[in-house]
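ESCALATION

Customer reports they have been waiting on this structure for their group meeting. Please prioritize. Original submission:
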Amino acid sequence: MNPTILQFVLRAEATPLYYKETMSRFMPGGRVVLNRTTWRGKEPRSCGVIAVKGRSHAAGSHEPVVVDITIEYRPPGCITYLGNTKYDGWTAFLLDKAPDGTLLDGNGKPLAEGQLPVYRAVEVHGDMEFNDLDFGNFVGESEANGISHVSVDDVMDQVSKARSVHASIKTTFIAARRNRPLVKLVLSNSPSGVSADGFGTRIVNISNFTPRLHNAILDQLMDVVTGVFEGRYSIKNLATDSFIFLELSDVLVDCTPNERGQDSRFHCLHEYVPPNYLEDLAKRLQSTYEVDVTVVDGPTGGLLVRTAPGADQLGR
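Update from on-call: job pushed to the front of the queue and completed.
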């Protein structure tokens, strides 16, 4: 379920401390607070005040001051990210681990080999009684920006209409570095490690015997994508004057069949990631970088990236 945005406009008589008092009333300490009980038909702790912004007001004016109040509704099951932290509704889910980094099983014991990591639900926001507050006039409720999905055919259609197209295996997206090696994640029975081939490609070998193999693949894929965004790595891409299509399906290669004299398997990433992984990845990227990200579905899919409005233009 996607989050929604509720907008209110509060008008009141101007006083020297009005803006400061309003901020402390709706966002005490400058922090997001949630509705303690059911409010406007929405579940307890599902609505948070995320912005309180005063409009321009001339000094000495007798006109009322106007404040815009923004509230975000995140029902249970609504998954969002703040950096690398996952939220279900407004509840944070943090990896259960000891101070030394050892993964735990949720009961304080080391996680057994082969078991999936355990996440602890943590309430990081306080609450207050929204029903006792005057938010002013209700303007409306609209869906917050969700993650869109398109097909590879849709992307190719956009590419065919673009003024310029640049197909490359060298990405110069965001940060310009002199060395941005192409990265490949390779599955094999060899020990895990990092090497380079004769073309300078960064080869990250992931052993098939790695405990929690799927999680190891996800961690490496996240490192690759953030490395592309920060200009450290390159992956196969299609760039136009308005977007970049990052072909994530091309990143993972299963070389295990080579030991049986068979060809490597390409475009098999979707076999190793959860069905909603790319959408979660898109949310994480949008929470960290000033970009709009669309999921490109299909075995040869990936992410379509555009610069968010108001941010610097894409670099290629």
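Sent to customer with the following note: Residues 213-229 form the longest helix (17 residues).
Escalation resolved.
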